Amino acid sequence: MHERAEPLGTASQSWTDAVSADEDLEREFEARLLESSTLAFRVAYSVLRHREDAEDVAQDAFAKAYRSFRQLRNRERFRAWLVRMTWRLALDRKRSDRRRLAREEYVAVDPTVGADGGDTHERSAVLWNAIDALSEKLRVVIVLAGIQGHDIREVAALLELPEGTVKSRLFLARQQLKDALSWAIEDQRKG
Amino acid sequence: MGDRRPAERIGLPRRSAEGAEAGDSALDREIDAALAVDPSPEFVARIRARIASEPAPASWWQLRWVLLVPVASAAVVVVAAAIWLQEPSPEQVTSRAGNDVVLAPPALEQPAIPQLEATAPPRPWSGRRTPPAVARTLSGPPAVARTLSGPPVVARTLSGPREPEVLISRDEQRGLELLLTAVRDGRITPTLASQLVAPNTATEAADIAISDIVIQPLQQFAALEGEGQ
After folding, report:
1. Is the pLDDT of residue A109 over 60?
2. DSSP chain B
3. Measured on CA atoms in the order A68, A73, A78, A81, is the torsion positive or negative?
4. If exposure means fewest CB atoms within 10 Å of the residue's CB, which of A181, B34, B88, B183 is most exposed?
5. Measured between beta carbons, which residues in chain A are less than 8 angstroms from residue B47?
6. Residue A178 C-alpha, separation from nearest chain B C-alpha, in angstroms
7. What span, in angstroms and rounded, lies between the C-alpha atoms of A189 and B5?
8. Which residues on B lie below 8 Å from A69 (Cβ)?
9. Residue A182 with chain B: CB contacts under 8 Å
10. Which pLDDT score, from 0 to 100, does residue A166 have?
11. Which strand (E) or helix (H) includes residue A88?
12. Hey, how many other C-beta atoms are within 10 angstroms of the C-beta on B126?
């Protein structure tokens, strides 16, 4: 009698453990969502520069992350995966987005870009054009370094690249951007 | 080398080395400001709603059932196949307890034997590669192969759909045996259906002669008429 009760108890314990594991998983995902939602949004925004589109893409990325979260429980791995997935989804959206024209108009009037008047809007548009002109490898590095003040080590972790590679790419990206924006920087320095 | 840089294209002087650091910080500030865009306040709530509509990530507990179901299905199929292969052929002619005789269902592969043939008398095996066949003439084409020592059995056909057994009563079996005996003794001449002479429909029917109808008055009425006059 007692021997029969043991398997039942084991099964019940397994079920309890499984439910508890699922709850832990949900809690972990909630924590990742809270700490990484802005990161995903900004990565998408850096590609699309349209708020609603960026939110849609970030949502898609989080949905995909949720499906594979069991393999992404590590925080660093999750953030790196999320950045890459968001970036790729945003590029796909940008290529197929029929609202591209609306977005280009939106850049000129986006109140979030700056609040200093027409010059700021113009400089922001020029900056984005210069960022868009970078190669993808340089672009993702400069964008991630500009989001939330990531340093080289953090960018390297997000891209799963050696720090030296990130450092050299960041240098090249800055050089190209400075060349492209030299007139604006000169104006600012003089001002 | 002929590709001039943007600063040179627009005629601005290149920055000096001492101004590079200030340029870097200015550029970083520009980039930071361009990327300092926050999502809408409902963004996280919308992600939560989206996640809620997604199926939960599979856990080992669910994967266990995912694996268990196909394994159990495969086991059931294997057991069913083993049972099916072990059961005796339903196509053998077997006598059942009682008055019924089981005849094999017709095999679809065998060519139809339209002629009623007599069962050859049993004779010892004469070295032919195939034993003599006994035709069955009810409705199905399968040949009944005679075994060396046992009773005639229907040649087993492995392919084709299985059909229900045909049951005939003992009386019908006896009638068939009498028929076969009569044919074997020559009392009945078997004829192919295709050799049957159809009625000659080409001959013209003879004219039907119908004589004229003569109506004669009834004598009783004639007598009455005479009385009246």
Report:
1. no
2. --S--HHHHTTPPPPPGGGHHHHHHHHHHHHHHHH--PPPTTHHHHHHHHHHTSPPPP-HHHHHHHHHHHHHHHHHHHHHHHHHHHSPPTTS-EEPSSS-EEEPPPPSSSPP--S--PPPPP----S-SSPPEE---SS----EEPPSSS--EEPP--SS---PPEEE-HHHHHHHHHHHHHHHHTSS----GGGSPPP--SSPPPPPP-PPP-----HHHHHHHHHH-
3. negative
4. B88
5. 33, 37, 58-59, 62-63
6. 7
7. 20
8. 57
9. 6-7, 12, 14-15
10. 94
11. helix A75-96
12. 7
Q: What is the CA radius of gyration of chain A?
A: 22
Contact status, residue A104 vs residue A94, Cβ threshold 8 Å: no
Q: Which of A144, A146, A111, A191 has its CA nearest to residue B30? A: A146
Instruction: Give the residue on A whose Cα is nearest the Cα of B62.
Output: A18
Residue A70: burial class (beta carbons within 10 Å; 0-12, 13-18, 19+): middle
Contacts of A163 by beta carbon, 8 Å cutoff, 6+ apart: A152, A153, A156
Least confident of A8-17, A45-54, B99-108, B171-180: B99-108
Q: ipTM of this predicted complex?
A: 0.71
Contact criterion met (CB < 8 Å) for B7 and A112: no
Q: Give the closest of A46, A70, A184 to B35, CB-based.
A: A46
pLDDT in tens, A55-96: 999 999 999 998 888 887 787 788 999 999 999 999 998 887
Q: Does the predicted model carry a pTM greater than 0.80? A: no
Two tokens, residue B118: 């007599």
**Are residues A87 and A137 in contact, defined by beta-carbon separation less than 8 angstroms?**
no
CA distance A141 to A152: 9
pLDDT at B222: 67
Answer whether B170's CB lies under 8 Å from B99's CB.
yes
What domains can be seen in chain A, in order of their start residue? 1-98 (1.10.1740), 111-191 (1.10.10.10)
